[in-house]
Structures are given as C-alpha cells and as structure tokens.
Design goal:
10-stranded mixed β-sheet, 7 helices
Amino acid sequence: MAMEENNHNSNSIVNITASRDNVVLILDFGSQYTHLITRRIRQLAVCSVCLSGTSPLSAMAALNPSVIILSGGPHSVHEEGAPSLPDGFFDYVWEKGIHVLGICYGLQLIVKMMGGEVKPAESQEYGRMEVRTHEGSKLYEDIFVGETQSVWMSHGDEVVRLPEGFVVVATSLQNAIAAIENPHKRLYGFQYHPEVDEIFINSIKDAGLYDSIWQAFAVFLPVKTVGVQGDKRTHSHAVALRAITSEDGMTADWYQFDPKFLAEVSAKICNSVRGVNRIVYDITSKPPSTVEWE
C-alpha cells in the first residue's frame, strides 16, 4: 500500500521527523503489513516512521522515538542470517524509557535476545484463532479479561520459555502463548497480527470500491493445498474471498472485480500471511448459496 514515506532511507526520514515529539518508530523485518501499521498510527494523529529492522542504532536514536514497534516477517529466529536488532538496542530503550511492542517475529526476537527460548511449533497455528486475555495485564489494561476475541495467527514457531521478568497475558484456546509483557522494562509482544485478514477490506477501499459492495470478508478454509513458495514445495492453507452486492439481503450476487485487482489481493495475502499459498474467489450468488459460509 503506497505511503508518502514508503522507503528505508534513514537520512531523508531523519530530516523530516527528527524535530517531532512522540514519534512511533516501526522497525520492518519484512512484513507486508508494516506500512499498514504505519498508516493506522498516522490516522490516530501520531507521527510514525518506518525503518529497516537492521538499521544501525544511531539511525533509530536520531528519531528520538517514544515507542518502537518490531514488525512481523517471513523469517524464523532459528534461521542462519535471520535479521536481528543492533547491538545495544535494549540498553538504549531502557535508558530512554521507550516502550517496545513486538508482533509475531518481533515478539520472538525479543524473547530470544532476552534469554528465552523459541522452538518450531508442534502444532502450527495459521488463520483465525480465538485468544483469551488474562487479568492484570498492562498491555490490555483488563479489557476483555476472561473473554475470547478473534485474531489472525500466522506462525510456525512458538515461545516455550519466557525470559526472566516476562509473563503471559493472553493464550490461544490451544493454550499457545498469544501475548507477553514485561511492564518493568516496557517490553510487550503479540504472537498474532492485530492488523491482518484488513488486507482484503483495505484493498477494496484503496480501489475506491467500498461503497459499491454490500458485504466483503475472507474465509480461512480448513483445507491444505500444494504450492511453491521461495523455490520450495509447500503444503499450506487456502483462503476464500467473498464480496457481494444486494438490495435487501434476501438475494445477492457476487461482485465482479477486475481480474487485476484480484491478482494483486491474492499476491498481497500469499506474500504476507505465512501458511497461506492459495486464494480463491467465491462467485456463487444467493440463492443457491447464503452470503456467509457457515
């Protein structure tokens, strides 16, 4: 998604933003959602800037951020040569009192660098999952405590041992760690994407089609398909897209997107969501089908 500052040129970014207060710095580790996060923060009237996650510490410090977000990414912290934070990063954020939020890969990077342990998950979690928040969390501030909320999981690794001082503040219904925090050191992490499946809806909005469609959503299918990603064979999940037009909901027809639009959305999802290698578009009207899938 196009951004007016969609680049990793630290010099130009520093010139634009160094004088601004309350900067949120997003460190990009290869996630396709990084610029969506950046834009969402700007929509809250907060200055947000994106840098490569492997930028030198001096480039980060020059922005004088109040908050740093570590993005997700396609890598595993176990991979040789996987991107990491620069030496002295945690000493810097502690000294300056900066809050740090890691998302997926960002969370796992925090855990590994702080002395915890991350391993390949025995049961990988991809797609829409239910998570339950725990009482006493600074991250959630007791919102939805004990209740479940739907989120998008997309990870093949999991945290099996937390670093000292960290606590679990949300878990999936499969009992996997979904969120952690160390309020004393201002470190927080999500093992899910609070900003994802928005891919389909935001693509519709960006194309100026939002007001032409009655309903649109994505369906995570309990089906695995064969694919090729990164020059290797994959056995991953499929996602179905549904968009319909209707006058009253009693009857409905599928929206006829331009093929180029569907191709772009398909590429965005497959490139962004780990564990998805196939996108299908539902072209069934109502009747015979209902609008929803289940």
